[in-house]
Aspartate aminotransferase family protein
Amino acid sequence: MPNADVPSDDVTLGPESAALLERRERLPGGASRLSYERPFRPVRGQGCILYDAAGNGHLDACNSVASVGHCHPRVVGALARQAGAPDTHTGDLGGEVVDYAERLLTTLPAAIDRAVFTCTGSEANDLAVRIARHATGGTGVVVTETACHGTTADVAAFSPSLGPGVPLGADVRTVPAPVGGDADAFAAAVRAAFADLARNGVRPAAFICDTIFASDGVCADPPGFLAAAVDAAREAGAVFIADEVQAGLGRTGAGMWGFSRHRVVPDLVTAGKSMGNGHPVAALFGRHGPVDAFGQSARDFDTFGGNPVSCAVGLAVLGVIEDEGLIENAKTTSERLRLDLAELAGEHAAIGEIRGAGLFIGIDIVGEAGADAAGAARIVNGLREKRVLIGATGPKANVLKIRPPLVFGPREADFLIEMLDDVLSRH
């Protein structure tokens, strides 16, 4: 499983960390995975740096949840202030949720004019599919082969990356990831998937994809390739759900939302993770027609989705992204980082294709036999020993995942390149 390690027997941990690891393995059990062979235990953070108990700083080049940097004072201050005021459930009339909804909707196409808040991206995707099924009268869902859209029962049924122990729904079809960005081939696969559903008596409901295709190994280019697949889904009678949990909030450096790179306007949009910089807040956005029709026929109430504290945090995050120019930073830092990675590729045969947009970059690690998952794991864990944190992803677990907070700048990029070069030289 990408980005999920079991601590090696030969890894030495301090007594406090070892005791904590034993408790963790005993309480959550095997379903709770760790990211590195030698587990990392952060105790504080600032910007792109996480510190362990000994005070050692680690460059965080993987944590998109802390989108505007760890412990940003503006976000922490907003949380603390609102927590000192009434924090009621969403059945009360509060101005914070209205302010937040209005602010978010200004970043979306005009056709998308409804905002509904949840606590997690899984919940947002669950709600999106319920709305899609209500709007179309169908149940069929098409996703990519290693997509990850969440962990509720319905959403897990169309999240193949969860593994063979989580069976796909009978009304779910998968298509190959758009590696290489072949628009015609991807559209043809989506068209064929909906046709297969129809042959089996399943009416279409939704085509949903993460617009950076993170779990599929990062498929970003060329901009616009997604549009033909969206057209194919709509021709079949399905709605298009853009899952922006990974690509949203300025991550791609080309605007606030990943789908904008593809010049499409979704029917429904979901977001989460980085909306709260670590605080649990997520949302569904959509066109008023399907959202209102669903709301009139089905009671939907999320006790904490859109609570005042979450909305205050979310508003602060949006303010930081705008005032600190973080979308432009994602663009310019990415350009520099991609050039340096291309130079490294010329020096290290293990580096294959480099893909991505903004501060979401995937690097294929290859060997003589092709995709090299073991090699990718060695690099990820080698960088962890150099106090640089990245991850791995992709259907073959061989894609290095660089996805830092949006405050990641040239100095951090230079250090990442230096350490990656050193680890690859020992690879």
DSSP finds twelve helices and 16 strands in the chain.
